[in-house]
TrEMBL record:
GO terms for molecular function: rRNA (cytosine-N4-)-methyltransferase activity. Belongs to the methyltransferase superfamily. RsmH family. Signal peptide: none annotated. GO terms for cellular component: cytoplasm. This is Ribosomal RNA small subunit methyltransferase H. PANTHER family: 12S RRNA N4-METHYLCYTIDINE METHYLTRANSFERASE, S-ADENOSYL-METHYLTRANSFERASE MRAW. It comes from Anatilimnocola aggregata. The gene is rsmH. Pfam families: Methyltransf_5.
Length: 294
């Protein structure tokens, strides 16, 4: 991956507005990616305080160390599930704001060796951290037809999951499905193209990515743990990109007695942002504030 990021952060104005960074504060970006949100927050600290930015993707961390140089940012190759340990190492008891952007970055899509793009001819990997877990192509080679169908249905909400799984199993008898391009072509033969223009392979890729990275499990754990890291009045902002994520965030915010929900409905991209950055169309932002202990 090139060091110069191509990804454009979604809902940038809304993140700044709702986290409202002030000089001297400590903020956390739990999904560093290309560093767009981190940069916006760090610039508003005006040299006092800092942003702790973490990401599971070593390539994102390496790029950010170069691109964010000169700003008050501490970068770590870690999951947002490790934030409590990282803050303890920094002797920080609480922070003023946390942002999680659960989307895929354009830089990951552009990396031919990761398999995130439907047109990628490299390995169908789909792992955020290539050094952890099992790549998607091995999952496709190993799982039984019913197991594949369940993953595609549960994590992709794909109603034609059984047809897709049947075709994957049939195809691998001759040639294993090893690239994103191969999988996308196979899925397109099973799923009719919709009127909204979204690629028929989208839901299947989403499902496999979620499964490989255990994304929903990580989000559930994070939503339980992160409020404890906020100072009274500190805010947790989460950007989700599909209904499975958004549902978890919505329910966690509503049921957590430590939090006051600030966004009754999720915030979405403005028409101007949609025109400038079409990938923002699915983004939904929810924000909650830590209530002072009574």
């Amino acid at each position: 991956m090139d060091s110069l990021p191509i990804h454009v952060a979604v809902l940038p104005a809304e993140i700044v507005q709702w986290l409202n960074p002030q000089p001297g504060q400590i903020l956390v970006d739990g999904t560093l990616g290309a560093g767009g949100h981190t940069r916006l927050l760090a610039e508003r600290l005006q040299g006092a305080g800092y942003v702790l930015a973490v990401d599971r993707d070593p390539a994102a961390v390496a790029a950010a160390e170069q691109n964010l140089r000169g700003l008050n940012v501490k970068v770590a190759a870690a999951s947002y599930l490790e934030l409590s340990e990282l803050l303890a190492e920094l002797d920080v008891k609480s922070v003023n704001g946390i942002v999680l952007d659960l989307g895929l970055s354009s830089d990951q899509l552009a990396d031919e060796n990761r398999g995130f793009s439907f047109h990628s001819t490299g390995p169908l990997d789909l792992r955020f951290n290539p050094e952890e877990g099992e790549p998607a192509y091995r999952l496709l080679a190993r799982l039984r037809e019913n197991e594949l169908a369940d993953i595609i249905y549960q994590f992709g909400e794909e109603r034609l999951s059984r047809r897709i799984a049947r075709q994957i199993v049939a195809a691998r008898l001759e040639h294993p499905v090893q690239t994103a391009e191969q999988l996308a072509t196979l899925v397109r033969r099973c799923v009719p193209r919709s009127k909204d223009g979204i690629d028929p392979a989208t839901r299947t890729f989403q499902a496999l990515r979620i499964a490989v990275n255990e994304e929903l499990k990580a989000i559930q754990i994070a939503l339980q743990k992160l409020p404890a890291l906020l100072a009274p009045g500190g805010r947790l902002a989460v950007i989700s990109f599909h209904s499975l994520e958004d549902r978890l965030v919505k329910e966690a915010f509503r049921s957590d007695t430590r939090l006051n929900v600030l966004t009754k409905k999720p915030l979405t991209a403005s028409p101007a942002e949609l025109a400038a950055n079409p990938r923002s169309r699915s983004a939904k932002l929810r924000v909650a504030e830590r209530i002072a202990a009574s």
